[in-house]
Amino acid sequence: MRIARQLGLSLFALAIPAVASAQSSSPRTNFENSWYWGAKGGVTSFDPSGGGRVNASSVGAEWLITRSRGALYLSVDQAFFEDVAGVYDPTVQGSVRPVDVSDWRRYGIGLYAYPLTWGNIKPYAGLGLTINVIQNADPQGTFTTPASQSQVFDDVAEQTSKVSATVTTGLQVQLGRAALFGQASAMPTRRNFLISGSSHTFVFEGGLRFNLASAIEVLK
Question: DSSP characters for 20-49?
Answer without folding.
Answer: HT----S---SSTTEEEEEEEEEEEEE-SS
